[in-house]
Amino acid sequence: MNAGLEYGIQGRRLGxxxxxxxxxxxxxxxxxxxxxxxxxxxxxxxxRHEEASAQALVEExxxxxxxxxxIQADLGTMTGIExxxxxxxxxxxxxxxxxxxxxxxxNAGIASQGTLGATTEAAFDEVFAVNVKAxxxxxxxxxxxxxxxxxxxxxxxxxxxxxxxxxxxxAMTKGAIDTLSLLLAKELGPRGITVxxxxxxxxxxxxxxxLLSDSGNRRYVESLSALGRVGTVEEVADAAAFLAGPDSxxxxxxxxxxxxxxxxx
Length: 265
Ligand SMILES: NC(=O)c1ccc[n+]([C@@H]2O[C@H](COP(=O)([O-])OP(=O)(O)OC[C@H]3O[C@@H](n4cnc5c(N)ncnc54)[C@H](OP(=O)(O)O)[C@@H]3O)[C@@H](O)[C@H]2O)c1
Known about the structure:
With 265 residues, this protein is an alpha/beta fold. It contains 8 helices and 7 strands, in the order βαβαβαβαβαβαααβ. It has helices at residues 27-38, 51-63, 78-96, 121-142, 168-188, 209-213, 215-224, 233-244; strands at residues 18-21, 42-47, 67-72, 101-106, 146-155, 194-200, 255-258. α1 runs parallel beside α2 (51-63), α1 (27-38) packs across α8 and α4 (121-142) runs parallel beside α5.
């Protein structure tokens, strides 16, 4: 971490803010972390396996005069969730002298292919553990540390606004995230904390690498969006930065679609 950059870069939009982005080693989480750090937030990069990518991101942020550090934790288990909370508190206290957090982005997630008939119990349990149980218990642990006026952004998906039977369990996990976002917005409103669900359509990440590697599939996906193309991680990060910043202070309990107008009817 760069010396003298406590609480990020003062004078920028998110200067003085501390952010945690889960699953920030690649894909959407990486782009969000980079964007928040550029806006001045002290950004904690959480990852599971991709240590080299997470460290490379920390270096990229520090190279641009930002401040970041990385924490490893497998959010598929309670032990991993507890590890993230423990390491976060220890690290923030050591680096910033306070365990306070301003922005929590629950982004880490996995896909799960399978209709109702084709989904195994193991696949169901795994996708619910990472996509639902982890954000729930992470929030349970971190909401008391979140400063008043804070921001929570939970990654939802287009698949909760349209029917997508091929990923039944995955779609259900994101439905749970929408409900969690709504009820927490009510609970945390008195503290000035906003809670929103951010819902990308098909974005060009590892999660869709197989799908988009087929040119026919790619053309089909492009045709779903009113804007006629596949979305980028930077476009999701732009929306996340809006929800994380002061301009969204009167927006809470909402589902923000970031799908380039897919399935408009
Ligand atoms: N891509 C899309 O089209 C799309 C659309 C709608 C919603 N979303 C949602 O957006 C979020 C990010 O998606 P993405 O496409 O950027 O995914 P991605 O490229 O596959 O990256 C997933 C991230 O989550 C982390 N992760 C996965 N399993 C984990 C676990 N058990 N414990 C801790 N971390 C774990 C990964 O860490 P490692 O790199 O260390 O493995 C990685 O950083 C997800 O919640 C996803 O459901 C994505």
